[in-house]
Design goal:
The protein is mostly helical and about 150 residues long. It has five helices and no strands. The protein has two domains: about 70 residues, no CATH class; about 70 residues.
């Protein structure tokens, strides 16, 4: 039943409102989803969310850079010189390295707040939330084409 409620909330967040509103609603639903999945106590939540939000913000910035600077260039990969391709590849590797570093730092900082089991549950909850988003997008755009 909880899953149905989250899906309905997610659908409404994506479907309705302005772009900024959707982003804020989506963040609120993600927060509620993770809080429930981890069964955070009020004391845990008070310590958890500042740490999580710090690193989530850093990771979102990396994804923004990746979308803006990497994916747009990769689409025109046939037009890149070998030197430009090498620079782009190094940029991709640097972003992935930073992403890994941020995940490590977040995990280390969360160990002061949550049990290792709850940190593992967090990783699962994040993936589950992403899957729900992907399912929603696939449903909106119809079945994938071969």
């Amino acid at each position: 039943m909880k899953t149905i409620v989250y899906i309905l909330l997610l659908v409404s967040a994506i479907t309705f409102g302005q772009r900024g509103e959707r982003s804020e609603k989506l963040k609120a639903y993600k927060t509620a989803f993770i809080t429930e999945e981890l069964d955070l106590s009020p004391a845990e939540a008070e310590k958890f969310w500042p740490v999580y939000n710090l690193y989530d913000g850093k990771l979102m910035e990396l994804r923004r850079i990746e979308r803006k600077e990497i994916f747009t260039l990769v689409k025109g990969v046939d037009n890149l010189s070998e030197e430009e391709a090498n620079v782009l590849l190094e940029k991709i590797l640097d972003l992935k390295s930073k992403e890994f570093q941020y995940h490590q730092e977040m995990d280390e900082n969360l160990r002061n707040v949550l049990s290792s089991k709850k940190i593992l549950k967090l990783k699962h909850a994040e993936e589950e939330f992403k899957m729900k988003l992907l399912e929603r997008v696939k449903g909106k755009h119809g079945p994938e084409h071969p």
